[in-house]
């Protein structure tokens, strides 16, 4: 029952019926779902939490990230901000912990995977309807965006809540493609395979309807991960080259009209973020304070720069390590494919590709505090833990945590240097500040 409720909760945070469906409009469904899941899952949580806590360092890192953002406000003397972080981000971290702890077996993981697929399919159909008819579910209209060079209006599909931003919607739909492809690879009957193929097509078309540059970049990351895992030798380079050509040719209209991948507006925002980090290097400017510290009054459109600016080095490193450890552990498990079933290998590879696409797209989207990011992260960690347990590989996958954290911290510090150099160069050559 607890995993079923987790699945329902995932669907709710994705399609958000309380924002557009009249029978439940205005209901606090997210809070209701969280409370119900917790109450039902208490026995399992108490039984498993200690062992999971000791083996999976990401749980501690997520809580440390949450704590450092509260501490940032404390050091700035803004006590009301501490309560804000505790409530807003606390709900997200709490759900992340529940997802990791309450799923006891691969059957439960499959329930979560189906929930993600249902939510993604709904949003894909919504985006396609909106693009082709001008209106989606609940009467939702697309987002008009004028071309900076020609003034021509491009309409971008969008949904509800987090996905009111076309970039966030596109990124999730891009992630959906490898998740549906997994179902195709492991599908036991023609009906499952037909559903999987339909899901791939609808997710891809729905992503295209958003006209999002960030989604195109995420597609590159996803394809790169697939090539890394699935192919060897010359096939890697031929497939990567072909994919690059196809994505470039079919890239949405916005991709070609706003100054390339980055654009002057984003490079300036990223530069503002670096200046915030420079002025507050340890604990940053504070949770949700980025917008008030830039002349454009916008988010960074970059999860890494945004986290660095608002959380400083104390917040950025736990955040970076969350991503780094999850990818390293998942990749390490995939490398043991000789001793696992083809089905488990395909699921691991698909989730790895989805996660790589998501992390790549996050360099162009601020989503470091969002439910869906932590949901994908938790699903990936849960899969890695359960498959490694099935083949008695937990010591190999999770037993190198201290070494992995040391390496991750070095890469995290190095990433700051790389971001600093590349963003400064982008501003110099792009005419930014």
Description:
- It contains 16 helices and two strands.
- It is mostly helical.
- It has one domain.
- The radius of gyration is 21 Å and the shape is globular.
- About 3% of the residues have low confidence.
Summarize the structure.
This protein has helices at residues 2-15, 29-55, 57-76, 79-102, 106-133, 166-186, 190-209, 213-230, 234-250, 253-257, 264-279, 303-334, 342-361, 371-390, 394-398, 401-430, and strands spanning 143-146, 153-156. The protein has 433 residues and is mainly alpha-helical. Helix 2 crosses helix 4 (79-102) and helix 3 packs antiparallel against helix 4.
Largest sheet: 2 strands, antiparallel
Task: Give the total of domains.
Answer: 1
| Morphology call | globular
Radius of gyration: 21 Å
In angstroms, what separates the terminal alpha carbons?
54 Å
Provide the spatial order of strands within the biggest beta sheet: 1-2
| Relative helix content | over 70%
- The secondary structure category is mainly alpha
Which sequence of SSEs, written as H and E, runs from N to C? HHHHHEEHHHHHHHHHHH
Task: Give the key terms.
433 residues, 73% helix, mainly alpha, globular
Layout of helices and strands, plus pairs?
Layout: H1 2-15, H2 29-55, H3 57-76, H4 79-102, H5 106-133, E1 143-146, E2 153-156, H6 166-186, H7 190-209, H8 213-230, H9 234-250, H10 253-257, H11 264-279, H12 303-334, H13 342-361, H14 371-390, H15 394-398, H16 401-430
Antiparallel strand pairs: 1-2
Helix pairs in contact: 1-2, 1-5, 2-4, 3-4, 3-12, 4-14, 5-6, 5-7, 5-14, 6-7, 6-8, 6-13, 8-9, 8-13, 11-12, 11-16, 12-13, 12-14, 12-16, 13-14
């Amino acid at each position: 029952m607890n995993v079923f409720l987790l699945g329902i909760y995932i669907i709710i945070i994705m399609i958000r019926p309380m924002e557009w469906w009249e029978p439940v409009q205005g209901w606090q469904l997210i809070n209701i779902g969280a409370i119900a899941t917790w109450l039902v899952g208490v026995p399992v949580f108490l039984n498993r939490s200690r062992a999971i806590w000791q083996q999976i360092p990401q749980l501690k890192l997520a809580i440390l990230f949450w704590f450092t953002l509260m501490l940032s406000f404390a050091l700035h003397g803004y006590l009301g901000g501490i309560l804000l972080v505790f409530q807003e981000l606390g709900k997200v971290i709490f759900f992340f912990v529940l997802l990791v702890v309450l799923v006891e077996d691969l059957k439960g993981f499959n329930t979560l995977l189906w929930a993600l697929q249902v939510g993604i399919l709904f949003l894909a159909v919504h985006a396609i309807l909106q693009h082709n008819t001008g209106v989606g579910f609940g009467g939702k209209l697309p987002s008009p965006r004028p071309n900076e060079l020609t003034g021509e209006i491009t309409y971008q599909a969008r949904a509800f809540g987090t996905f009111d931003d076309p970039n966030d919607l596109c990124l999730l739909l891009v992630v959906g493609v490898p998740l549906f492809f997994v179902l195709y690879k492991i599908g036991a009957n023609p009906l499952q395979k037909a559903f999987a193929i339909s899901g791939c097509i609808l997710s891809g078309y729905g992503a295209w309807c958003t006209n999002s540059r960030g989604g195109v970049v995420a597609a590159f990351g996803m394809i790169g991960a697939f090539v890394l895992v699935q192919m060897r030798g010359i096939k890697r380079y031929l497939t990567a080259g072909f994919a690059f050509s196809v994505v470039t040719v079919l890239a949405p209209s916005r991709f070609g009209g706003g100054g390339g991948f980055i654009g002057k507006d984003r490079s300036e925002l990223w530069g503002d973020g670096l200046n915030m980090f420079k002025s507050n290097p340890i604990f940053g400017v504070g949770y949700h304070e980025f917008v008030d510290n830039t002349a454009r009054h916008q988010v960074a459109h970059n999860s890494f720069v945004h986290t660095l600016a608002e959380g400083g080095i104390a917040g950025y490193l736990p955040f970076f390590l969350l991503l780094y450890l999850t990818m390293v552990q998942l990749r390490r498990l995939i490398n043991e494919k000789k001793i696992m079933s083809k089905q488990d290998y395909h699921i691991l590879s698909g989730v790895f590709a989805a996660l790589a696409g998501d992390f790549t797209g996050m360099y162009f989207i601020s989503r470091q505090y969002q439910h869906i990011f932590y949901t994908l992260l938790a699903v990936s960690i849960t899969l890695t833990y359960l498959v490694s347990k099935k083949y008695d590989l937990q010591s190999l996958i999770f037993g190198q945590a201290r070494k992995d954290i040391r390496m991750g911290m070095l890469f995290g510090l190095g990433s700051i240097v790389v971001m600093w150099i590349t963003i400064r160069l982008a501003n110099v050559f792009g005419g930014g500040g």
